[in-house]
Amino acid sequence: MSSADWKNYEPVLIPQIRDLHKIDVYEKNGGYSALKTVLTAKDKFPDQKSVIEEVKAANIRGRGGAGFNAGLKWSFMPPADGGPRYLACNGDESEPGTFKDRKIFEYNPHVFIEGALIAAYAMQITTIYVYIRGEYRAYIQMMEKAIQDAYDKGYIGKDIFGSGYSVDFHVHSGAGAYICGEETSMLESLEGKRGYPRVKPPFPAQKGLWGRPTTINNIETLAHVPSVINRGAEWFKGVGAENHPGPILYGISGHVNRPGVYELPSGVPVLDLVHEVAGGMRNGKKLKAVIPGGSSTPVVRADQLDGITMDSDSLREVGTMMGTAGMVIMDEDTDMVDMLWRITHFYHHESCGQCTPCREGTGWLEKVMLKIKNGEGEVKDLDLLLDITTQMEGRTICALADAAAWPVRHTITRFRDEFEARCKKSVHAVA
Amino acid sequence: MAYEFTKEDLQEIEKIKAKYPEVKAATLPALWVAQNRFGHVDENVQKLVANTLDLPESHVHGVATFYTQYYKEEKGKYVLDVCTCLSCQLCGGYDILEHLEKNLGIKKGETTEDGMFTLNEVECLGACGYAPMMQITNDQYVNNLTTEKVDKVVEDLKNGKVPEYEQIEMPLRNVK
Questions:
Q1: Residue B130 lies in a domain
Q2: What are the pLDDT digits (tens) for A108-130?
Q3: From A311's CA, which of A186, B18, B29, B98 has a CA 20 to 30 Å away?
Q4: How confident is the model at residue A426 (pLDDT cuts 50, 70, 90)?
Q5: What is the pLDDT of residue A430?
């Protein structure tokens, strides 16, 4: 299934099957057969390592934004020593423009549960937590129900499929903090603390939850695992773009006719996603810009988008990233100054306050942007903003400072004329 | 005012504690139990949670004040959290916020005199495709808002009618 053939793609994460969220419907459609295979089919998967190898070969690049090979991440877990080991599933989903994992919670929770169970078995994990942002109360309740149903059917709990493998599975609700989507902050929050990211190393695989080996995966990443087991790594690698393979949940929002979450192969042309998948621009307006993967990924001008596809290699050509594939589409009437000010406000609000360059820097970015937005800025303030971004990037414990700095740098660079037009005439400008 | 958990609350907290190897991990969920019971987690409620879990008050206070969804003071009967972040901004989130400010006669962050409504501007709630939207008291999402729809929701709430869960149609597959 090539990216160009996306129109003939059949979804596997959110297929159109009525009541798929119910466990018996999921079972009727082949659900939990992948779990059974890894636990009982010793000819296919003689041990846990063979499961990790298969997933590694599939090259499921983490769908939370970092894009790291999930199987490779699993292989970093140290050998089991008889003590507790944890899988923390990241359903915090708070990056503006991102609203994909909720579709899995709502329409196909068991594909995620099954994927998490396979991951847990492969890494000899004893307890799974799924961290869901507190605002998703409805989805938290749906997940609690789905997990209970899987317990009742014996897919979770003691001696699953008579294999001797046992695991527990719990839901943990967040309570409103973007930073808890950062993996070590999420661990702190799970441990019942303020969500301050941890210094790495030690990495979670060495010292994670309660000082024990822990792996953190995004919900969508884990939801891909059952189809990798059922159809094989070769199938997964054959879907979409070569270096960023597999199906992707594209969350498309903004000025389009049919916003929503669409499951398609990776590597679909950005302009196809805007004009065909999402039904084109609202009110017949022209496309101005696209943020491809959540608010922190650099914005791209419409004139840069010809031939650009949604995969990391192609997006790198225009200096941006795949992120969460939460695409924000902007039409010709969009005020880039207002848009960027709102993003700086977001990151200032959500900085946890632990590192000075981020705590202070996000505040300065917002203040200077507010000044420009209100027509009080000077052209030199744009360079001040760019200077602030270089003082933030790479100087903090986690990547929130970078996430705040990138949109500022790239929006100003790519729409500089618009920002200058909003500034009052600089005292340094030649009349 | 002295706050006390009911027997059911205490049972629920015991169940929560069993999910984790350390009692501290029960802090967030126990604060949720408290907020669901009392409508907020002010300092007195924070003390109750600390005493119930046998944790320092300073720890519970630190956690309660870090997370935005815990109400550190009494709020209106219904809290309207209007999203204005990125996609909602692009699709008119500020129009909805201003409309509500005008209609309720309060500014964001304030509560109406009759104690019915608190109005907040909030950061991304993860409903970007259904913008603009708002959340009611940490629970129901109301999507694809127009000023007419907002007016109807407010009228309904005044009559004690909370909007039902809005299921969003499955994404269209036949985009062929």
A1: yes
A2: 999 999 999 999 999 999 999 99
A3: A186
A4: low
A5: 52
For testing contact with chain B, the best of A85, A99, A142, A333 (most B CBs within 10 A): A99
Give me the number of domains chain B comprises: 2
CB nearest to A195's CB, from B22, B66, B175? B66
Domain assignment present for B94: yes
Q: Is residue B27 part of a domain?
A: yes
Residue-level pLDDT at A2: 87
Contact B150, B102 (CB under 8 A): no
Q: Shortest Cα distance from A48 to chain B (angstroms)? A: 25
Last residue of a domain, one of A271, A297, A331: A331
For A228, the domain range is 3-237
Q: Return d(Cα A331, Cα A287) in angstroms, integer.
A: 5
Rg over alpha carbons for chain A, rounded to the nearest Å, is 22
Residue B147 belongs to a domain? yes
Among A412, A402, A405, which residue's Cα sits nearest to residue A382?
A: A412
Distance from CA of A427 to the nearest CA of B (A): 33
Instruction: Tell me: cis bond preceding A84? Omega within 30 of 0 counts.
Output: no
The CA angle A320-A202-B63, to the nearest 5 degrees, is 80
Residue A429 lies in a domain: no
A268 chain-B contacts, CB cut-off 8 A = none
Residues B98-104: contacts with CB within 8 Å, 24+ apart? B99/B147, B99/B150, B100/B150, B100/B154, B103/B150, B103/B151, B103/B154, B104/B154
Cross-sheet strand order for the sheet of A326-331: A260-265, A247-254, A326-331, A287-291, A300-301
- ipTM for the predicted complex: 0.96
Question: Which CATH number fits the domain that encloses residue B145?
Answer: 3.40.30.10
Query: Is there a contact between B90 and A339 if contact means CB atoms under 8 Å apart?
Result: yes
Mean pLDDT (whole number) for A173-177:
97
Pair A369, A304 in one domain: no
Indicate if A189 and A317 belong to the same structural domain: no
Q: Which one-letter DSSP state was computed for residue B24?
A: G
Strands A300-301 and A287-291: antiparallel
Which stretches of chain B are DSSP H helices? Answer: 7-17, 27-38, 43-53, 57-66, 87-90, 93-104, 147-158
Non-local (6+) Cβ contacts of A258 within 8 A are A252, A277, A278, A279, B172
Task: Tell me whether residues B128 and A259 touch, CB distance under 8 A.
Answer: yes
Tokens of A174: 């967040």
- Domain-terminating residue out of A237, A261, A294: A237
Distances (CA, A) of A298 to A207, A250, A348, B135: 33, 17, 18, 29
B71 touches chain A (CB under 8 A): no
**Spatial distance between the Cα atoms of A318 and B89, rounded to a whole number of angstroms:** 25
HEC states along B94-113?
Answer: HHHHHHHHHHHCCCCCCECC
The packing angle between helices A137-152 and A109-122, to 10°, is 60
d(CA A85, CA B21): 12
Distance CA A399, CA A405 (A): 10
